[in-house]
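User: My collaborator sent over this chain with a note saying "see what the structure looks like." That's all I know about it. Can you take a look?
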Amino acid sequence: MANPIAENGTHYRQERYADSIVKLFRKQLVVRSEFMRDYEGSPVAGAVKVPVRATDVALNNYDVVSGVSLTTSATNYLNIPVDNHKAINELIDGYEASAVPDNLIAQRLESGAYSIGTTLELNAINELVAHGTTESSTSALTEGNAFKTIATSIKDIKKLGVDLTDVIVIVSPETELLLQTDDKFANTSGQLGAELVRNGVIGKIVGANVKMSANLPANVEYIVFARPWAQAIDEWKVEPSVNNLMDGAHIGASALQGRMVYADKLTEETACRVKTISTSV
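Assistant: Without extra context I'll predict from the sequence alone. Here is the result:
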């Protein structure tokens, strides 16, 4: 095990460190992983274009003498600036990069990765909440109506012509508790395959996968959205790593550093339904 730098320079003191890393509370990240990545262009350029087109080919009556009028169509592209820049620059004082204990490196790298993941997750959730269609009712869900209310939101998205396999339901911990008392939902939980469970699926409502997120805002009971209209744009600049500080001020010190560039966009507000509750007293 490498040794830290003491006041009088580097030396070889006999030091021992715990083999395990410090455990921290972790909320599961399940929302942004469901976003699609259908953009054209490179995020490095500063913006990407996502195709947005809600109309199909027109079908008209044909006349054997005069034929049929020619129709035209065009695909519009939504220009999405990739303008979210985040960075990690945490001082690990007293250690050269090569001398940082292995368990400390592992813990800070894991923490850095989780901090980045959480930031991306919260940004994705905020995009859905801010730009999705808010359900008209602000009354809190109950054990008696939670399942049916969510099923109704799913139905509204399916009516748009969305394939059920593209519909995802995200519920708060409180809403999950209500659902678990409903036999129709509880029965689906025991029928999930191992892969769905690994991906965070806790059950199904009228065939749509349901995930629980403790990251939803306090006033949001659930979100139902169609994946093709939720876009995530990622571009890594510098992956988190421990580097020596060569800034002319720190001596014998290192830092955990990393940087990311990203954007999230809901391209069609009707493809997302958000159920909120009133927070007024």
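A starting point for your reply to your collaborator: The chain has one domain: 32-276.
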